[in-house]
Task: inverse folding
């Protein structure tokens, strides 16, 4: 009998999320290696392309990626070296840095796009639409809870 069947659901799901994240990252890295980009670089470009109509700030991208400003900046600097984006100061507030995708990036990201789509299709093979909808609700609730937990920690740090 599989040991995991004896685990409480919350423990199983928590552990599974960590395992899934690691395995997805490893497999996606393998797929993207031929294009000379990492999964984090790919994800940053997907976030910018999918969620923003105007060049976003580092802070906005960090929030959407669930990452720190510093991590996003490191990833963005690597993409800037490859001429796939530029970091520009905001015209109204020079303290704010915006991330602007380059014309070259539009052409570049078309190359790995089919690999990303095939990867996603294979990942969700056999999962029913209804199950995806339920999983989306659960994942959103978990992300909301994480945000509340983070805010609570920020408020505690402010009090110290």
Result:
């Amino acid at each position: 009998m599989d040991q995991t069947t004896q685990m409480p659901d919350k423990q199983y799901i928590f552990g599974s999320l960590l395992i899934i994240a690691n395995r997805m990252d490893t497999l996606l890295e393998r797929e993207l290696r031929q294009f000379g980009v990492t999964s984090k670089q790919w994800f940053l470009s997907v976030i910018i392309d999918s969620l923003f109509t105007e060049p976003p700030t580092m802070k906005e991208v960090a929030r959407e990626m669930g990452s720190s400003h510093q991590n996003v900046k490191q990833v963005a600097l690597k993409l800037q070296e490859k001429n796939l984006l530029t970091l520009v100061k905001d015209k109204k507030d020079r303290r704010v840095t915006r991330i602007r995708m380059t014309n070259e990036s539009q052409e570049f990201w078309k190359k790995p796009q089919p690999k990303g789509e095939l990867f996603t299709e294979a990942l969700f093979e056999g999962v029913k639409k209804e199950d995806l909808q339920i999983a989306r609700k659960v994942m959103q609730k978990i992300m909301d809870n994480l945000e509340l937990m983070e805010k609570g920690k920020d408020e505690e740090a402010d009090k110290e």
In short: The CA atoms of residues 27 and 119 lie 9 Å apart. The helical segments are 9-32, 39-51, 58-65, 69-81, 103-110, 113-123, 129-159. The first strand starts at residue 85 and ends at 89. The radius of gyration is 18 Å.
